[in-house]
Amino acid sequence: MSDARTPLSRFWAEFKENKIALVALVVVVVMILLALFASIISPQNPYDLAKLSLMDSRRPPGFVGSGGYTHLMGTDPQGRDLLSAIFYGLRISIQIGLAAGFVSLTIGTALGITAAYVGGRVEALIMRLVDLQLSFPAILLALVIVALLGQGKAQLISALVAAQYAYFARTAYGAAKAERGKDYIEAALATPLSGSLVVIRHILPNCMPPLIVVATVQIANSISLEATLSFLGLGLPVTEPSLGMLISNGFPYMMSGRYWISVYPGVALIILIVAINVVGDQVRDQFNPRLRK
Amino acid sequence: MIEPVLSVKNLTTHFFTRAGIVKAVDGVSFDLAKGEIMGLVGESGSGKTVTGFSLLGLVDAPGRIVEGSVKLNGTELTTLSDTELRSRRGREISMIFQDPISTLNPMLTIGQQMKLAIDAHEPLSARAAETRASELLTQVGIPSAKARLRAYPHEFSGGMRQRVAIAIALLHRPALIVADEPTTALDVSIQAQILFQMRDLAHETGTAMIWISHDLAVVSSLASKLAVMYAGRIVEQGKTATLLRDPRHPYTAGLIASLPATAKPGTPLTQIPGTTPSLLSLPPGCPFAQRCDRATDRCETEPEMTLRDSRGWRCFHPVGQPAEASV
């Protein structure tokens, strides 16, 4: 029987059934909101060096600092309020994760579909390049690129894109190749319809479900890769710490009992990545008819 | 005599594979008049699908039409450029595929897909396209067509999807439709409905049709004439009724005898011994000789098509005829 509801509302109804995924989605949304409104809700602007006081550095959670307010999560070695730094750090992580995710999605999809559609030498060239690149560890590639391009958001995003577009290219290629062989594509190509119209109306929409799944996973990966690079000191400038850099900043003090500098940003990072992955898993299950109940 | 819509002469399509040349279609000739339905029957690998694809110029490498002519309304199709062929496909000559699942894009509504198929040849306004599309859906027997235009393929059953495919094939009122086993994947009851509707549609619209099938029973209820293919050749052709009542070629006779409907209940079904020979290494002479109980030494040379009373057969020892009359 036909279902009167739209595909989207059906998708949502099915999503709601998984309570864990629903909680994860709420967590992701809350974290995005915290990042969006970081400048309003944080007690302090952690990137304004003039507001920081070294007198407040490395204070435990609950300490009332020179600003006259309680540092709920303590402060870092530069005297930043850790809670504010985490909100701002979340903002950087989510920004970079999304930007890198979408740019790699676009580039990878374009390459993968081109390879599958054009075929022949173009296909061989693109896909062998992608294979070659997948044989490198992503972190190594990103390290080299950041080292070459220098620090900054744009450079960091390019490094993440370079490390990740290949996954999208592979996925798009596989999906497009399978679709390319179907009768309706053959039929559309046998008529005067232009090739680009066939790609946009027929091939691309049918490649989207697997790409959306890869995109959610890759956004989480971008965030953790960014944190890794920052932890290694190759991310953003020290004056604007992201979550990875906060962890790194607190690392030397871990053994001296000042656990909070590393642990709280780490917990925030873990919660964000796990929540995105749980949402991604549920989306994947719903797109895969074999896992459907 | 009326000028035929489609005239195929000595159509020969070979596949040049690494293992050798596969003569998938080897000298096929037939004519088709306006609104006429011809059944093209044969077992798997007999070349019936390749014949259909050759008519539309859709044979992919390593295959190629090596000789012969396909004339549609007087225009020779085999020598046309790719662009000219594309502008004719879907407009003058359409195809219906076997599998109703993969013939429609699952991500677009039926209306959107029909609009694309219309736009491929003559861009119409959204409203005009919708009217045309819903008219055709109604014609192929889809109720409340206007509303169904907004439905997605997964909301249709297999039979309904195949009707949509038929409607899309009919969008531009083509002179010829090649239907490649379009009802094979469907229920018998749905099959019958679609067959009768197709027969009426061919009458109403004057579209000639080639119905490719391995099922003699299905085709015989629909087609006014039949061509039986074996190993890339048409071994017998003629009016459906004549052919069924009085087959000449032993292969046709074998096919009719093996129809389950002709068997007495409780008795084993008749079958034709052996299997289709490999098209890679066809023995010289009649390709059916090895499976034929009427074969003699003479069958080591290949029989020509014997034409008589608007029917034809390729056999030296036709069924129901004294041997000397066949020369």
Oligomer description: heterodimer
Number of domains of chain B: 2
Described by the principal axes of the CA atoms, the overall outline of chain B is globular
Uncertain residue segments of chain A: none
Would you give the CATH topology of chain A? MetI-like fold
CATH architecture of chain A: Orthogonal Bundle
> What's the count of strands of chain A?
2
User: What ranges of chain B have pLDDT less than 50 throughout 5 or more consecutive residues?
Assistant: none
Largest sheet of chain B: 8 strands, mixed
Name the helix and strand elements of chain A from N-terminus to C-terminus, one letter apiece.
HHHEEHHHHHHHH
Separation of the first and last Cα atoms of chain A: 18 Å
Give the strand order of the largest sheet of chain B, numbering strands 1, 2, ... along the chain: 6-7-8-3-9-10-12-11
CATH superfamily of chain A: MetI-like
CATH topology of the largest domain in chain B, by name, is Rossmann fold
Amount of helix of chain B: 25-40%
Helical amount of chain A: 55-70%
Looking at CATH, the homologous superfamily of the largest domain in chain B is P-loop containing nucleotide triphosphate hydrolases
The appropriate CATH architecture of the largest domain in chain B is 3-Layer(aba) Sandwich
**Structural class by SSE content of chain B:** alpha/beta
Q: Mind telling me the CATH class of chain A?
A: Mainly Alpha
Largest sheet of chain A: 2 strands, antiparallel
Describe the protein in words:
The complex is a heterodimer of chains A (293) and B (327). Helices cover 70% and strands 1% of the residues of chain A. Chain A is mostly helical. Chain A has one domain: MetI-like fold (Orthogonal Bundle), CATH 1.10.3720.10. In chain A, strands 1-2 form a two-stranded antiparallel sheet. The radius of gyration of chain A is 23 Å and the shape is elongated. The two termini of chain A are 18 Å apart. The mean pLDDT of chain A is 88. Chain B folds into two domains: 6-92 and 173-326, 3-Layer(aba) Sandwich (Rossmann fold); 108-171, no CATH class. Chain B contains ten helices and twelve strands. Chain B has helices at residues 48-55, 82-88, 110-119, 126-139, 145-148, 158-170, 188-205, 216-220, 240-245, 250-257; strands spanning 6-17, 20-32, 37-41, 63-72, 75-76, 93-96, 176-180, 208-213, 225-230, 233-239, 306-308, 311-313. In chain B, strand 1 (6-17) and strand 2 (20-32) form a beta hairpin. In chain B, helix 3 crosses helix 4 (126-139). The mean pLDDT of chain B is 88.
